[in-house]
Write a structure and sequence with these properties.
- The structure holds three protein chains of three kinds.
- Chain A is an alpha+beta fold.
- A five-stranded antiparallel beta sheet of chain A has the order 4-5-10-6-7. In chain A, strands 11-12-13-14 form a four-stranded antiparallel beta sheet.
- In chain A, helix 9 runs antiparallel to helix 10.
- Chain A is globular, with a radius of gyration of 19 Å.
- The two termini of chain C are 42 Å apart.
- Chain C is 29% helix and 24% strand.
- Chain C contains 21 helices and 28 strands.
- Classes of the chains: A alpha+beta, B alpha+beta, C alpha+beta.
- Chains B and C meet through helix 2, helix 3, helix 4 and helix 5 of B and helix 1 and helix 19 of C.
C-alpha cells in the first residue's frame, strides 16, 4: 500500500486516475481506517487530501457556505455561521460517532462512504446541498442527493473525489432539523433517521419543505409526498398524521441486527414528525 | 510496502520514526515509541481507550495513520503530568476513586482534559456526552463524573 | 453512607478511604497491562479461527505458511498433551480445536512470525478443509431430540434416559410440598422468560507474552484473574511440571470472571517452545467476543403462589441454560440462587444444561444467578401488581433471615437482607413521585461468595515498614483494602505497608480472584499472617526484656508487658523490634496458608426509575439506587465502586446487550459498535447505600461484595419498564424494538 499527500486537487485526481488498483481518499479516515484494519478493503493507494489548500476551510458564498471536504465535524460545529443557517445539517454531522470521531470525521467522507444510515446525509439532502467534485476531466457540481448509489456505493467515477459541499442561502423564516433513532444515547449507527427543512410565510404557513429519510432504504430517500402533506399547513394534527403516514409509506428498510422492518418503518414516521416540529420552531413558527 | 519516515512532536519532544504506510498512530505509539499509555480496546474507534490529541484536537489514535503525524503535535497520557506534579485531573481521579482496573483511565483523562480546555464549567450532562466515546466497564461512570467536576472546580479557582 | 444496627469494633484504618497504591501508575499510563510488555527477539502470533458454527476438520495444510519468510513456528491441537481429565481436555479443546470446530471463531491453527503482518499473511496461506455440519444455537432447540448433536457422550448420570445428547447435566434443589403450597395460594402466576448471552465486556483484550525453552522451563506474563490457575492449566496442556512454569499476572484491564481461564496462553507457550523465542499474542476485539467466555443463554419457567396478604406459599423454577459447546455447571448455581432471598415452606428448582454451537461459557459476576433471579423477581413483582401489594412490603414479609432454611439447603447465619430492604423503604427514592410514562422497579439479589485456597506472607522490614505478599490480582482496589487490614491488625500507619501481588514462584497456591473472595479470604489470611508476625515480635520483645513470651501483649503497634507484674519496660514499637531483628534471631515474617471458610453471603436491593418513550420504545434510566450489605466496608470507595459498576453492567444486560446469531450460526455483533454496553450519557448517577451486618466468619465482619450488584438490575429494570408500559416483559434484553412491539400488542 502506498500513501500520498498531494498539495493540489489536480495532483490528487491524477494520482487516483493513474492507479490501476483500489484507491481510497483519506479525509477524516474514521471509516477508511476501520475498513483497512478489518481487511475488508486493501487499497493499493491512499490519498490524503488534508494538505490541499482550501479543503479545510469554510467560506461564505452567495449567502450560503462552501465547506471544504476535509473540514472535520468538530470544526464545522465551531462555525457560528453554518450553525445559524443550517442547524439541522450541523446536528446531523455532530452525531457521527464520538467526540474523538468528531475530531476527524468529515461530511464529505460520511457521504462518500455510502452507508444508508449516514448521519450527515439526510440533512444535506433536505438542504439541497451541492457537492463539488474533482476528477481527471476537471471539476463538476452534483446535488448531494445524487451521490449515494446503494450500500457502500456512490455515483462517483474512478478518479473522482469531493473537494467541497455547498450549503445554499435560505429565505427568512426557514429552519431545518435532523433526528435519528438509536438504542443508546450515543455511539450507535442510526436505526432510522429523518431530516426536515422548511420555510414559512409571515403567518406560519409552510410554503416550502423537503423531507429526507435515512437508514430505511438502500440510500437516503427524499420524500416529496411527505413534504406535500405539510405544505400549506401550520403543522396541525391532521397534517402531522399525514406526514407520519407518508414517511412510513416511503420506507423500504431491511431486518438486521440493528432493527426490524416494522420498527424502522414506524419510527421513521415518528422522527419525521418530531424533526418537522423542531424545524418549524427554528423557522419562527409556533405550532 | 515501502516504509514511511515521519518527524513529529510527542508531548513536546521532537520524535522521529519509521513505520508502514498502513500502521495506525496507536501502533506507532505503543510498538515503536514505547508509549504504552494509550490502549487498544477495540481498534475501531468505538471505545476511546486509545485517545490522544492531534494538533490539540481529541482523536482516537487507532483511526489515525502513523504517517499522518508528520509535522503534527501529538499529546498522550504520558504528557499530562509535569515531572512529579500530577495534573489536577489525575489527582482528582485518585482522590475520588474514579478508576478501578484503570485500563480506560488514560483515554478518559486525555478526553477530560480536552473538554475542560474547551469548556471549563461543564454540566454533568455535558461531561457525560463528551465522554460518551470512552467506555468504562468497571465504574459505571459515576465517580468519573465526580472526579472531572472536582478537577474542573479546582482548576477554575486556581 | 453506611447504616447498621449492631455494635461494632472501632476501627482506625479499616473503613477509611486512603489513596490506592497503584493510583499514580494508572493515571499516568505507567502501569503495565497484558499487552504492554515486549521481550528481546520477540515474535508476534495470530490465530486462524473457524468460520463455521459446527464442522469436522478434515485436513490442515500449513506447508505454504511454513515456507513464508519470517514464520518461525506453527501449532495445532497436535502440539498439546492429551488430558485424562474431561475438564482439562475441554479447556484445551477450546484453546485449539482437535477433530471438530464447535463454534464460529474457535481457534484452529496459530502462527508466530517476526512481525504481526507476516503472521497475518501466513494465516491466509493455511488451507483448512472443513466438512460443515448442522448447527444449533438456541438452548430450547438444542434440547429437542432432533437437534444437531454438538458433542456425544458428555451427559452425566443425572440426565434421564431419552433426552438429547446435548443435555449434559441436571440438578434439583428445594424442600417441602409444592402441591400443597400452591393449593394454599390465592393467586398463582406462571411465566416463561428468556435471556440472551452477554459478555463481560472488559475493555482490555486478552494478551500474553510467553517464553518457553526446550528444557521445560517457562515464563508467562498475562492478564489474568488467577496466575496459579493459569499455571496449572498451561503446565497440563504443555506436559511440563507446574513448578517450572512461572506465571506473572500483569495489571488487568477488567475481568469480571472472564479472565479466570486460558484461551491464548497455552498456544503462546507452545509456539515459544517450538520457535525458541518469546511469543506475544494479543486478541482483537472481534476475537474476544467470538472466542472467549460469554455467559449462558437461558430459558426459564417460574411458578409462584401468593396469598392475598402477600405471603409466598410455593415457588418453582425450571431453568434451561446453555454454556456453549462444552458441558457447563452454571445452572447449578442459578438453581440454588433463584429463591435464596425468601423464607419458603415449599420450593423446588430444576436445572438443565444443554450444549449449543456457541463459545465456551466463562463466569460473569455471580454466574447463573442474574438469569434465575430475574425470572423469580419478575413473577414476584407481577403477583404484587395483581394483588395491589407494595413490592417492598412483600419482600420484607417473605425475606430470609438468620435461621431461615434457605431454598438451596444451608441455614442462614446473620444476613443483611432485611436491613437492605428496610433501608430501601426508608430512602427518599422509594417515595419520590413518578410522572406519566415512568415506572419504578425493585429487585432483591444475592450471591453466595466464596473462600478458597489462599496464602499470604507478611515481611517486617528493618526500617519498620511491612511488605505484604499475596497472590490475587487486584481487579477492584484490593491492594488498598489488604494494606488497610494489615495496618489495622498491626497498629501501624497505612503508608508503612506495601502490598504486592506475587507470581506463582513466590507463594503457595492461591485460588482465582473470583467468587468475591479476595477482601474476605486474602484479608483474613493477611490478618492471620499479621497475628503470626505479632506473635514473633512479642517473642523477640520478651527475649530482649528477659521475660516470658506469654507476658507480652501487642497494643497500638507495639509490644508491651501484659501487666505491672511482668516488668517495667516501655513499649517497643514494630519499627524498634524490626531494627534489632538481626540480633534477636533474624528477619521477622508472618504467614498464613489455608482454605478459607466462612465467607458470608451478600444481599442487595436495587431501585430504579425509568421513562419509556411510547412512540419508539426507548428507555431512559432516570434514577438508580443500590443498597447492599458489605458486612464491613474496608475501603468504602471501592465497595461503592463495585456496587455502581455491577449495577451498570446489569443495566446494559437488561436494556441492550446480547449475542446475536445469524441463521448461519455465526456471531453477528462481535464489536463494541453493535454489542451495546452502556456509555456515560446513558446513565444517571448511581447512588449507593452500604449496610454493614458483620459476617461472623471474619474478624472484621467482611463480606464479599463484587458479584451481588449485577444480580438485581435485570429484574429491577424489567419491573420498572413493565410498570411504565403496562405490559409484563419477559425477555432480555428489552431493546426498543421489543418494547415497541409489546406496546403495540397492548
Amino acid at each position: 500500500m502506498r500513501f500520498a499527500q498531494p498539495r493540489t486537487t489536480e495532483e490528487a485526481a491524477g494520482l487516483m486516475a493513474q492507479e490501476s488498483g483500489l484507491t481510497r481518499i483519506l479525509s477524516g479516515g474514521t471509516d477508511v481506517m476501520v475498513q483497512l484494519k478489518s481487511g475488508l478493503v486493501q487499497p493499493a493507494l491512499i490519498v490524503d487530501i488534508k494538505h490541499i489548500p482550501g479543503l479545510r476551510t469554510i467560506t461564505p458564498e452567495d449567502g450560503g457556505f462552501r465547506i471544504g471536504a476535509a473540514v472535520s465535524g468538530a470544526e464545522l460545529g465551531e462555525h457560528e455561521g453554518v450553525r445559524a443557517l443550517w442547524p439541522g445539517v450541523v446536528e446531523g454531522v455532530e452525531l457521527i460517532g464520538s467526540t474523538q470521531v468528531q475530531g476527524r470525521a468529515t461530511m464529505a467522507g460520511n457521504l462518500c462512504n455510502g452507508s444508508p444510515a449516514a448521519d450527515a446525509v439526510p440533512g444535506l439532502v433536505a438542504a439541497n446541498a451541492i457537492a463539488r467534485i474533482m476528477g481527471p476531466d476537471g471539476a463538476r457540481d452534483c446535488p448531494v442527493a445524487d451521490i449515494p448509489a446503494g450500500p457502500g456505493k456512490t455515483t462517483l467515477a474512478k478518479g473522482e473525489f469531493l473537494t467541497s459541499i455547498f450549503l445554499p442561502a435560505r429565505p427568512d423564516r426557514s429552519g431545518d432539523a435532523y433526528l435519528r433513532f438509536i438504542p443508546r444515547t450515543e455511539m450507535d449507527i442510526a436505526v432510522a433517521s429523518a431530516a426536515v427543512s422548511l420555510t414559512l410565510d409571515a403567518v406560519g404557513i409552510v410554503t416550502a419543505a423537503r423531507v429526507a429519510l435515512g437508514a430505511v432504504a438502500p440510500t437516503v430517500r427524499l420524500v416529496p409526498a411527505a413534504a406535500d402533506t405539510i405544505l400549506g399547513t401550520k403543522l396541525d394534527d391532521a397534517a402531522i398524521a399525514s406526514l407520519m403516514a407518508a414517511a412510513s409509506a416511503a420506507c423500504n428498510p431491511i431486518d438486521d441486527k440493528r432493527g426490524t422492518i416494522e420498527f424502522r418503518t414506524q419510527v421513521a414516521g415518528v422522527l419525521a414528525k418530531r424533526a418537522a416540529l423542531i424545524a418549524y420552531s427554528r423557522a419562527g413558527g409556533t405550532a | 510496502m515501502k516504509s514511511v519516515h515521519v518527524s513529529t512532536t510527542v508531548n513536546g519532544d521532537a520524535v522521529e520514526f519509521i513505520c508502514e504506510p498502513d500502521e495506525s498512530l496507536l501502533d506507532v505509539l505503543r510498538n515503536r515509541l514505547g508509549l504504552t499509555g494509550a490502549k487498544e480496546g477495540c481498534g475501531t474507534g468505538d471505545c476511546g481507550a486509545c485517545s490522544v490529541t492531534l494538533n490539540g484536537r481529541l482523536v482516537c489514535s487507532c483511526l489515525v495513520l502513523g504517517a499522518e503525524a508528520e509535522g503534527a503535535e501529538v499529546g498522550t497520557i504520558e504528557g499530562l503530568a509535569k515531572g512529579d506534579a500530577l495534573h489536577q485531573l489525575q489527582q482528582s481521579f485518585i482522590d475520588h476513586a474514579a478508576l478501578q482496573c484503570g485500563i480506560c483511565t488514560p483515554g478518559i483523562l486525555v478526553a477530560a482534559k480536552a473538554l475542560l480546555e474547551k469548556n471549563p464549567d461543564p454540566t454533568d450532562t455535558e461531561v457525560r456526552y463528551w465522554l460518551a466515546g470512552n467506555l468504562c466497564r468497571c465504574t459505571g461512570y459515576d465517580k468519573i463524573i465526580h472526579a472531572v467536576q472536582d478537577a474542573a472546580q479546582k482548576m477554575r479557582s486556581a | 453512607m453506611a447504616l447498621d444496627n449492631t455494635p461494632k469494633r472501632v476501627f482506625k484504618v479499616v473503613g477509611t478511604r486512603p489513596p490506592r497504591p497503584d493510583g499514580i501508575d494508572k493515571v499516568t499510563g505507567r502501569a503495565l497491562y497484558g499487552a504492554d510488555v515486549s521481550a528481546p527477539g520477540m515474535l508476534t502470533a495470530h490465530i486462524l479461527r473457524s468460520p463455521h458454527a459446527h464442522a469436522e476438520i478434515v485436513s490442515i495444510d500449513t506447508s505454504a505458511a511454513e515456507a513464508l519468510p519470517g514464520v518461525k513456528a506453527i501449532v495445532t491441537a497436535k502440539d498439546f498433551a492429551p488430558q485424562d481429565d474431561d475438564f482439562l481436555m475441554d479447556v484445551l479443546d477450546n484453546c485449539m480445536a482437535r477433530h471438530k470446530v464447535l463454534y464460529d471463531g474457535q481457534a484452529v491453527v496459530a502462527v508466530a512470525a517476526t512481525t504481526s503482518a507476516i503472521a497475518k499473511a501466513a494465516l491466509k496461506l493455511i488451507k483448512v478443509t472443513y466438512k460443515a455440519l448442522p448447527h444449533v444455537t438456541d438452548v430450547d432447540a438444542a434440547m429437542t431430540l432432533d437437534a444437531p448433536v454438538v458433542q456425544e457422550g458428555r451427559s452425566l448420570e443425572t440426565v434421564p434416559e431419552g433426552m438429547s445428547q446435548n443435555v449434559t447435566s441436571h440438578c434439583e434443589f428445594g424442600h417441602g410440598d409444592l402441591e400443597a403450597g400452591f393449593k394454599k395460594a390465592d393467586v398463582v402466576v406462571e411465566r416463561s422468560f428468556t435471556t440472551a448471552a452477554t459478555h463481560q465486556g472488559y475493555i482490555e483484550p486478552h494478551a500474553c507474552l510467553a517464553s518457553m525453552t526446550a528444557d521445560g522451563k517457562a515464563d508467562l506474563w498475562c492478564c489474568t484473574q488467577g496466575q496459579y490457575n493459569v499455571r496449572d492449566l498451561c503446565s497440563a496442556a504443555l506436559g511440563i511440571e507446574g513448578s517450572q512454569l512461572r506465571v506473572t499476572a500483569s495489571e488487568i484491564g477488567g475481568g469480571f470472571g472472564g479472565k479466570t481461564t486460558v484461551f491464548i496462553e497455552p498456544v503462546a507457550l507452545a509456539l515459544s517452545c517450538k520457535a525458541g523465542r518469546p511469543v506475544k499474542i494479543v486478541m482483537s476485539r472481534d476475537e474476544v467476543f467470538r472466542a472467549t467466555g460469554p455467559t449462558v443463554s437461558s430459558s426459564i419457567d417460574v411458578k409462584i403462589g401468593m396469598t392475598r396478604d402477600g405471603r409466598i406459599t410455593a415457588g418453582e423454577a425450571h431453568l434451561r441454560y446453555s454454556g456453549g459447546a462444552f458441558p457447563c455447571g452454571t445452572v447449578d448455581m442459578g438453581a440454588q440462587a433463584a429463591f435464596a432471598a425468601y423464607d419458603l415452606q415449599a420450593v423446588r428448582t430444576l436445572g438443565w444444561n444443554a450444549l449449543t454451537n456457541r463459545p465456551k461459557e466463562a463466569a460473569y459476576r455471580a454466574p447463573g444467578a442474574p438469569q434465575a433471579i430475574y425470572a423469580v423477581e419478575s413473577v414476584v413483582d407481577e403477583l404484587c401488581q395483581q394483588l395491589g401489594l407494595d413490592p417492598l412490603e412483600v419482600r420484607l414479609k417473605n425475606a430470609a433471615r438468620k435461621g431461615t432454611r434457605s431454598s438451596y439447603g444451608p441455614t442462614f447465619e446473620d444476613i443483611g437482607l432485611v436491613a437492605t430492604l428496610e433501608a430501601a423503604k426508608a430512602h427518599p427514592h422509594y417515595s419520590a413521585p413518578l410522572a406519566e410514562g415512568q415506572g419504578r422497579g425493585l429487585s432483591a439479589g444475592f450471591w453466595f461468595n466464596f473462600g478458597g485456597n489462599t496464602c499470604v506472607t507478611l515481611n517486617v522490614n528493618t526500617d519498620g515498614t511491612v511488605g505484604v505478599t499475596e497472590g490475587n490480582p487486584d481487579i477492584g482496589g484490593s491492594r488498598a483494602a489488604i494494606s488497610q487490614m494489615a495496618a489495622e491488625e498491626l497498629g501501624i500507619p497505612y503508608d508503612k505497608i506495601r502490598t504486592i501481588i506475587a507470581d506463582t514462584s513466590a507463594l503457595g497456591h492461591n485460588d482465582v480472584t473470583d467468587g468475591s473472595r479476595v477482601t474476605f479470604s486474602v484479608g483474613l489470611a493477611t490478618i492471620k499472617a499479621a497475628q503470626d508476625a505479632i506473635a514473633r515480635m512479642c517473642s523477640r520483645a520478651a527475649q530482649i526484656w528477659g521475660i516470658d513470651e506469654e507476658a507480652v501483649v501487642w497494643k497500638d503497634g507495639a509490644a508491651e508487658p501484659a501487666g505491672p507484674n511482668a516488668g517495667k519496660f516501655p513499649p517497643m514499637s514494630l519499627a524498634e523490634i524490626a531494627a534489632v531483628s538481626f540480633n534477636t534471631g533474624g528477619p521477622i515474617a508472618g504467614h498464613h496458608e489455608f482454605n478459607a471458610d466462612g465467607a458470608g453471603v451478600s444481599f442487595g436491593v436495587h431501585l430504579v426509575d425509568v421513562e419509556v418513550d411510547k412512540e419508539t420504545g426507548a428507555t431512559k434510566v432516570l434514577r438508580y439506587t443500590v443498597f447492599q450489605d458489605a458486612g464491613k466496608a474496608v475501603h468504602p470507595s471501592y465497595v461503592e465502586g463495585q456496587m455502581q459498576g455491577g449495577a451498570v453492567q446489569g443495566i446494559g444486560w437488561a436494556l441492550n446487550e446480547e449475542y446475536i446469531y445469524g441463521e448461519d450460526g455465526r456471531l453477528q455483533n462481535p464489536g463494541f459498535l453493535d454489542y451495546r454496553v452502556p456509555v456515560a450519557s446513558d446513565l444517571p448517577p448511581i447512588e449507593t447505600v452500604i449496610l454493614e451486618i458483620p459476617n461472623p466468619g471474619h474478624p472484621y465482619g467482611v463480606r464479599g461484595v463484587g458479584e451481588t450488584p449485577i444480580v438485581p438490575p435485570l429484574a429491577a429494570l424489567s419491573n420498572a419498564v413493565s410498570r411504565a408500559i403496562g405490559t409484563r416483559m419477559s425477555s432480555l434484553p428489552m431493546s426498543p424494538p421489543r418494547i415497541l412491539k409489546a406496546l403495540s400488542k397492548g
